[in-house]
Amino acid sequence: MRARDQVRLDTLRGLNALFQNEMIASKIDTPFLSDEQALPLVKRSVKQHRDSIEQFTKGGRTDLVKKEQLELEILESFMPESLGRDAIKEFILTRLPALKAEGKYDESNPNKASQIGKLTGLITKELAGKADGGDVKAVLEEVLRG
After folding, report:
1. Average pLDDT, stretch 128-142?
2. Count of alpha carbons within 13 angstroms of residue 31, beta-carbon side
3. What are the CA-CA distances from residue 84 to residues 17, 45, 89, 128 (Å)?
4. Mean pLDDT highest for which of 4-18, 22-36, 80-94, 111-125?
5. Distance CA 51, CA 98 (A)
6. Would you tell me which of 13, 56, 68, 134 could form a disulfide with 61, CB atoms 3.0–4.6 Å apart?
7. In terms of pLDDT, which residue wins out, 135 or 9?
8. How far apart are the first and last CA of the chain?
9. What number of CA atoms fall less than 13 Å from residue 136's CA on the CB side?
10. How far is CA 13 from CA 7, 21, 45, 51, 61, in A?
11. What's the whole-number mean pLDDT along residues 34-42?
12. CA-CA distance, 51 to 48, in Å (whole number)?
């Protein structure tokens, strides 16, 4: 507030309102959300801003695109560092033998879409917010098909 950074102030107020609404909806008695409860809300907000940027770009609203991009940068500063594709590939290659042993992956049928979806879900859960689901799916398909 003292820095008179209105975009940052508005973004943080919006995020605070999102947290308050979640606490009310979930009937949480503590005064603050835990990191595990707050992270999905921040991720959802980041996704919404990315979608808004895409829509505003299509609509030719450069003024709104710039505002959304500034807010997105602020929100992304609260996100944990995301793993790169190389790190995801390394994780998948180390985890795949265990998934085969547990019977969650059948190597004889690697092209089955439902199997890739199931593996993507399992690996995304294990990475718990450290990697984007789209990146996990792309790397997994590359590993299984290549």
Report:
1. 80
2. 0
3. 31, 21, 9, 14
4. 4-18
5. 36
6. 56
7. 9
8. 52
9. 23
10. 10, 12, 13, 20, 24
11. 85
12. 5
Collapsed DSSP state (helix, strand, coil) of residue 94: helix
Which residue is it, tokens 């996100």?
A: 79
The C-alpha angle with vertex 97 and arms to 83 and 122, in degrees rounded to 5, equals 50
Q: What is the pLDDT of residues 89-107, one digit of tens each?
A: 888 888 887 777 666 666 6
**Pairwise pLDDT comparison (105 vs 83), residue with the higher score:** 83
Nearest Cα residue to 28 out of 75, 14, 36, 15: 36
Spatial distance between the Cα atoms of 12 and 112, rounded to a whole number of angstroms: 43
Global confidence as pTM: 0.66
In terms of C-beta density within 10 A (0-12 exposed, 13-18 middle, 19 or more buried), how is residue 77 classed? Answer: exposed
Residue 13 has pLDDT above 90, yes or no: yes
For the stretch 76-83, contacts whose Cβ atoms lie closer than 8 Å and that sit 24 or more positions apart, written own/partner, are 76/46, 78/15, 78/42, 79/39, 79/42, 79/43, 79/46, 80/39, 80/129, 80/130, 81/130, 82/130, 82/131, 82/132, 83/127, 83/130, 83/131, 83/135
